Amino acid sequence: QTREESGKKKLKTLTAAETEKRPSNSVRVRAPVLPPAPPQTSLPRPLSAVAATASTRHSLPPMAMATAMGATAATYGAPIPAPAPAAFSPHRAAGGRRVRAVTARPRPLFSPRAVSDSRNSQTCLDPDASTSVLGIILGGGAGTRLYPLTKKRAKPAVPLGANYRLIDIPVSNCLNSNVSKIYVLTQFNSASLNRHLSRAYGNNIGGYKNDGFVEVLAAQQSPENPDWFQGTADAVRQYLWLFEEHNVMEFLILAGDHLYRMDYQKFIQAHRETDADITVAALPMDEERATAFGLMKIDDEGRIVEFSEKPKGEKLKAMMVDTTILGLDSERAKELPYIASMGIYVFSKDAMLRLLRDNFPSANDFGSEVIPGATEIGMR
Fold this sequence. Notes:
Order of helices and strands: HEEEEEEHHEEEHEHEHHEHEHEEHHEHH
Shape: globular
Number of strands: 16
Distance between the termini: 117 Å
CATH class of the domain at 63-75 and 127-376: Alpha Beta
Mean pLDDT: 73
CATH architecture of the domain at 63-75 and 127-376: Alpha-Beta Complex
Low-confidence stretches: 40-121
Structural class: alpha+beta
CATH topology of the domain at 63-75 and 127-376: Spore Coat Polysaccharide Biosynthesis Protein SpsA, Chain A
């Protein structure tokens, strides 16, 4: 065997291992030899979120707004969009090591379409809510009834819908109602809540002028007041010096741990049309659940004539009223004979300052002290 024949055999062996044979003909094409692929380092695509759309077929019960001058029925309006992709998406890098990579920051529950629709709707506040209303969201108490979910977090920070928290519901309602100046008062287990708000809401929140904000106000001690927040009214009182600096007409007081949908513009409009000092959002309620709410009696004009916080026994029976005044039929009114406060209030700015500083400087709670007291002194 000659050296030339041996070289031809070796060449034939190499090309057979490195070439690809086409089925249409027997021509052999040499395939390029590529280096090994590097380890996978790119982030996986996040799971897509299901888009939520507002639909008129999803009807919700009417909300009655008991004001000092009249009771007005309204329906909830602003849609709440679906959750965004999860904030953290774990994947495995080279060598099987588990890596946690940031893929998306929580997005605020803000729907530009809802704001656009509200601007074109019949609800037209003058002046606009973005400049005339200050939203104040109360961070809630210790949350003992939700334990152990609240072992290390405040009630408004309890997860909801994957990447959201309960606090996002009232914030979303505010933004979709064009209320873009929002303070959140926190106290118990507030680290998780503060972290979520700082990540989810930037400086350019609400409105087209980017002059809105969502700001956390933590409980604090001062030489004038060495105590922490003693209740809902006391929490607002301790920061009145800050709230009164805003050139607004009303304070919108909200709870940070409630799950509902509501257009606050209709609520505020009813407050202004009736020239009320305080307006309370209310719902008709059955007897079984009535003991967990503040109950009220109203006259034919919707004026609050009596208010009782979480009554029981004979006091509960005494708060029974004819709820047909709220627009219910007679049969439904028998099933829901009480008017319950939702813990949502609109205070005229001057009325809030007078009540918390002059009339009731030691009152700690809106439901059990301030609202009943305002009724007794004849506020509208």
